[in-house]
């Protein structure tokens, strides 16, 4: 397994992200500044810069006010601030999750890996890292066609040799990676069932933050006509994985993130 992207400092990859933004005609200076601010914010180091995050906070407020009014404001995903958050999520969260599972050696149980799917791949950096980790495998990221983030992910895909599709469907997938993804789905259990039915993964690496308030997260989630919030949806999601035939493998990671699920023998 190759871990070049995981081992490199995030700053080494940042210029590539900005190059991808430049290729789409985005305001690179704004994206760069907002990305640095958002990394600080998610790292808990932004108290002195809180006033500079006012636009980010306004985007979050707009998202939740729309939900309270009975509609979903999908336009938040097209904001430069959301692109900045995707970069920050790689730096603060996804990179850490991948390094944790990479160094644990837990993937050795999978043997030869032929196909990996990165659900909701954002700007595609996690997908690029997965392609390096499983160099001989077909690695596919999923994201919504036509969005700016998908265009950036496809820019990385051309560089690192992976594909980005709107929806993946394979008869057999060795590994599904889903970092900070299911909390962006209002009916996450139904989506999980669809993932298992269409991809038949042997294993899943999942990192959910259902209880966290953030752009694109829902205050409550629907499962079979019932509403769930906070820890209750997390428990219901895990129960569904067990019902679908997966068992949770103990990894000893802090706060149990990410969690590793393998199809029961």
What can you see in these coordinates?
Helix content is 46%, strand content 15%. The chain has a single domain, classed as Vaccinia Virus protein VP39 (Rossmann fold, 3-Layer(aba) Sandwich). Helix 3 (28-42) packs across helix 5. The mean pLDDT is 92. The protein is globular, with a radius of gyration of 18 Å. The strands form 2 sheets. Strands 3-2-1-4-5-9-8 form a 7-stranded mixed β-sheet, sandwiched between helices. Helix 6 links the parallel strand 1 and strand 2. The two termini are 25 Å apart. By secondary structure, the protein is α/β, with parallel strands linked by helices.
Rg for CA atoms:
18 Å
Under the CATH scheme, the architecture is: 3-Layer(aba) Sandwich
**CATH topology (level 3) name:** Rossmann fold
Let me know the largest β-sheet: 7 strands, mixed
Structure keywords:
alpha/beta, Rossmann fold, 9 strands
Please specify the SSE layout and strand pairing.
Elements lengths: L3 H4 L2 H14 L4 H15 L11 H15 L11 H25 L10 E4 L6 H9 L4 E5 L5 H13 L2 E3 L7 E7 L8 H12 L1 E7 L13 E3 L2 E3 L1 H14 L2 E4 L9 E5 L2
Parallel strand pairs: 1-2, 1-4, 2-3, 4-5
Antiparallel strand pairs: 5-9, 6-7, 8-9
Helix pairs in contact: 2-7, 3-5, 5-6, 6-7, 8-9
